[in-house]
Amino acid sequence: MNAFKRYEKLVILLSKWFNIVAGIAMVSMLVLITADIIANKAFKSPIPGGIEFVSFLAVAAIAFAIAQTQLTRGHIEVEFIAARLPALAQKIIGTLVSIFLIILFFLLAWRSFIYGNEIRLIGEVSMTRGIPFFPFIYAIGACAIVALLVVILQLLQIYLKDDK
């Protein structure tokens, strides 16, 4: 197995694992919201910090789904114009978009780890339950790294698909 195939397999596996985490976060949100509504209606007592937990789970669901969504090209793309262009123009546009996304995800990862460390050092926590923010900010950075790996894979595919 060549290096590209190993890289492709690793990126796909990481994206799937992260997507499973996103799915677990979504299901957890559903369970927590349902339990909170039942507790509020039946016992007149909502789950303490329920909104905070749902907010943190929403961050996890969104962040951990980015790589798989990018891998499956599930984001909105304006492709109807580019599809009508010659192959060389499509390759140039794909390269430029990929470079932009690489820069974007690199900056997001880098600044997330810096910001997460700052928040960790000052001890910032949520108001009701005292949940630290920094693990979620670090998670965003980790998700950006996996998304970056996906975009690099897609950029390589632009050039390697011609060789097949």
What topology does this entry show?
Layout: H1 3-43, H2 50-71, H3 87-122, H4 134-160
Helix pairs in contact: 1-2, 1-4, 2-4, 3-4
Task: Report on this structure.
This protein has 164 residues and is mainly α. The chain has one domain. The protein contains four helices and no strands. It has helices at 3-43, 50-71, 87-122, 134-160. The relative contact order is 0.14. The mean pLDDT is 92.
| pLDDT averaged over residues | 92
Class by alpha and beta content: mainly alpha
Helix fraction bin: over 70%
End-to-end CA span:
15 Å
Q: Uncertain regions: pLDDT < 50 for 5+ in a row?
A: none
Shape: elongated
Number of strands: 0
Question: Strand-and-helix sequence, N→C?
Answer: HHHH
Outline the biggest β-sheet: none
Radius of gyration: 20 Å
Give descriptors for this structure.
single chain, 164 residues, mainly alpha, 4 helices, 77% helix, 0% strand, elongated
Give a short overview.
By secondary structure, the chain is mostly helical.
